[in-house]
Amino acid sequence: MAFFTADLFIPLALTSVRGISATLAGIVLTAGIIGWTAGAYAPARLLKWGMTKGGIARLGAILVIAGLTVIGAVILTTVPVPVPVPVAAVGWIIAGLGAGLGFTINSIAVLDDAAGTVGRASSQMELGNQAGIAIGTGLAGALVATMGATAAGLSGVLVVAGAGVVLALLASTRFAETHPPLTPPER
To answer: 45: closest CA among 3, 98, 101?
Structure first.
């Protein structure tokens, strides 16, 4: 929820508040997708190296918080010296990496369900994902509609996204701290 909520408003924030072109704002979004791709690839490796699913989920949430902080600094700081816009791409790579980790490890956790309730768990996960995105984006959109595409209105978007990350961080404590191997042991 947090990544998508912010992602939808980054072009507006960068063009309205910082005055950059839509092309440069698009490059920042592309950086986030590159981070997401890397983050989606990493959980399998991290599990093989002994990291727990909960640890990976918490790492993902922390990276999204870090990325939101960087993008917020780029969008909202103009005095005394604005943070350079290319830093936004770095921040959004970090956030994308975290989101990729988080979404992928959630799917792995559901597919590893030993209780045999994969169908129910996966539908609940998907419903939660979509509801979170809709609620976060709706709240953020209402803030921008009320306050305008200003630094104040768009900082509200970051607050909503940040709240979503905090919820994800809290939910990550519910992961089982052990994990079965991703592949069956060899005989």
So the answer is: 101
CB 62 within 8 A of CB 98: yes
Instruction: Give the residue among 14, 28, 15 at the shortest CA–CA distance from 89.
Output: 28
d(CA 47, CA 7): 28
Contacts 24+ apart (CB under 8 A), 113-122: 114/180
Task: Report CA 95 to chain centroid distance, whole Å.
Answer: 5
Name which of 173, 122, 167 is nearest 5 in CA terms: 167
Angstrom distance (rounded) from CA 144 to CA 154: 6
The reported pLDDT for the residue numbered 81 is 67
Q: Tell me, what's the pLDDT at 18?
A: 85
Going by C-alpha positions, the residue among 138, 26, 155, 156 that lies closest to residue 78 is 155
Q: Pick out the chain residues at pLDDT < 70.
A: 78-81, 114-116, 176-187
Q: Does residue 144 contact residue 157 with C-beta atoms inside 8 Å? A: yes
**pLDDT for the residue 76:** 82
Provide long-range contacts, Cβ within 8 A and 24+ apart, for 43-52.
43/101, 43/104, 43/105, 43/108, 44/108, 44/182, 46/101, 47/108, 47/179, 47/182, 48/182, 52/175, 52/176, 52/177, 52/178, 52/179
Q: How far is 93 from 166, CA to CA, in rounded Å? A: 19
